[in-house]
Amino acid sequence: MSETQIVWKEGALSDFTFKDQIVNHNLHNNPLFSDEGLIKIIDNYPKDRLEVFTMGYDERGWGDWYLGRRGNLDGRQLLEAVKNGRIWLNLRQCCDYNPPVKAECDKLFNEIKEKTGISTFKHDMGLLISSPNAHVYYHADMPPVLLLQIKGIKKVYLFPPTEPYISNIDKEAIAIKEHDEQLEYKPEWEKDAFVHDLKPGEFASWRQNGPHRIVNHDCMNVSFSIEFMTAQSVWRANLLYANGCLRRYFGLQPSLEKSWKIFEPLKIIYARIVKLMGGFKGHRSIRQPCFSLDETNLGVIHFDAGVVPPAR
Ligand SMILES: [Fe+2]
Fold it and tell me: Does the predicted model carry a pTM greater than 0.85?
């Protein structure tokens, strides 16, 4: 293994969190993330926290995202089910349950701080293990994200965090957790996307709140979705939170770009007060599981009675 996790070529992570870019790393060579290593990570992770999803077939569509049950499958069986099926495993905050993975995560952000001078915190290193041709619909996240590829290839489509790709109202909705993070997608925007086939040894870093969609090539994919915060990203998240409340409670029309900067500190205080008083009450759906994984034919999915499976 190389000493550094990031391959610090000229310009790597310049304008960090303000630019869409692909950077090289060495983590795909780490034995921690071999098939046997992944099985260990899955088996060390709390059984009921592991999320299993499947999805519809139109990658530009909307809403066909289903939560399932892992049943009694262990790490080895889950990996086999992912290889054979159409499944997306999400192990949120996986480094909290795997000290060696946490050590790698800390090392990564220490390196970033050393080379860019930018301090990060609230690290959330989630492991994504997903089937050939699986995809994630168009959506945006509140924290900045690094999508780090370990195995397989996925096509990432990154869009600017501005109109028309995402409105201020949508960004605020994500900040105040008004509803789920998925956004409506227009195929004519595709020409404006930063598109890249993300390979092992690469990670993508994009602008905070930049909408994105992701489509696996015809191979199993292992990636880390690493969320984090910087002082500036927290400021922006709180501004959006305040703007969201001002719009919804008082009918104001705030704008991240056009509102007066002089009022920003007041808005940050306002966001803090609303959160202390219990926060904005949104309508984020709590997804109920609606399918099970076959425990003999690994990769086969059984939808519950009454659930309409996605149309091909
Ligand atoms: Fe995302």
Answer: yes
